[in-house]
Write a structure and sequence with these properties.
The chain is an all-alpha fold. The chain has two domains: about 1-110, no CATH class; about 125-225, Serine Threonine Protein Phosphatase 5, Tetratricopeptide repeat. Helix content is about 65%, strand content about 0%. It is built from 15 helices and no strands. It has helices spanning about 5-15, 20-25, 40-50, 55-60, 65-80, 90-100, 110-125, 130-135, 140-150, 150-155, 160, 165-170, 180-195, 195-205, 210-220. Helix 5 (about 65-80) packs parallel to helix 7. The chain is globular, with a radius of gyration of 18 Å.
């Protein structure tokens, strides 16, 4: 009997184990995460090959204590959400899975991999209130999701969609967790490049109180005054 898709995927990850990568991976994961140790390009390739895995099996991968297995699950979700053939119902299922299992997202790069396509892709053209609720969450990685997901609006939406970035940035710019404040700077940099008028208005209102790194990022793509 052939192993199920999730087991084949996990076996592919272990087959790509590289002892030289263990220390590199260990530096960016939570203290209690287990690691395989592998190059990210190999993880992405395995996830792309497993994009057709049933979502129930992807959900099961998120139970793993191993960082690369859970990161792989989020990569699969990302590839599915970016597929031009994805249906609105599939987008909704991916979105629910991401939010329902957010407790299994333990590193900032997991957020950055899937939040734009899975969360932002679902909310583009819809009420962005779920992002405000995430921005008020006690967990830093949920707050990072709130400000990272609307990067999809910047890339794929109209200017009215891009404007949703700025209230979230105002709420999170002074966040005490560096993983959140850094993401605010990234979001403002991209939103400012796409919608400089809205970014200038944001800086007029909030520039004096922004942390210096966030301010520099927010101004980096704007025309010189």
């Amino acid at each position: 009997m052939r192993p199920d898709p999730a087991a084949r995927f996990v076996a592919a990850l272990h087959a790509a184990h590289d002892p030289a990568e263990v220390a590199t991976v260990r530096r960016r994961v939570a203290a209690d995460d287990e690691v395989i140790g592998m190059r990210m390009r190999d993880l992405f390739a395995a996830a792309k090959a497993a994009t057709g895995m049933p979502l129930a099996d992807v959900d099961g991968l998120l139970d793993s204590p191993v960082y690369e297995v859970r990161m792989g699950a989020l990569c699969i979700m990302d590839f599915r959400a970016k597929d031009r053939r994805v249906t609105p119902d599939e987008r909704a299922e991916l979105y629910r899975l991401y939010l329902d299992r957010h407790d299994r997202i333990t590193t900032w790069d997991m957020v950055d991999r899937a939040a734009p396509s899975v969360v932002g892709g679902r909310l583009l053209g819809r009420d962005p209130a779920p992002l405000a609720r995430l921005a008020a969450a006690p967990e830093p990685l949920r707050r990072r999701t709130a400000i990272t997901a609307p990067l999809w609006f910047v890339r794929h939406g109209g200017l009215a969609d891009v404007e949703h970035v700025f209230p979230l940035a105002a709420a999170l710019a002074g966040d005490p967790d560096p993983s959140v404040s850094a993401a605010v700077g990234i979001a403002l940099e991209h939103a400012g490049a796409r919608h400089p008028q809205a970014a200038a208005a944001f800086l007029d209102a909030h520039g004096a109180t922004l942390p210096r790194p966030v301010l520099r990022a927010a101004m980096s793509k704007l025309p010189a005054p």
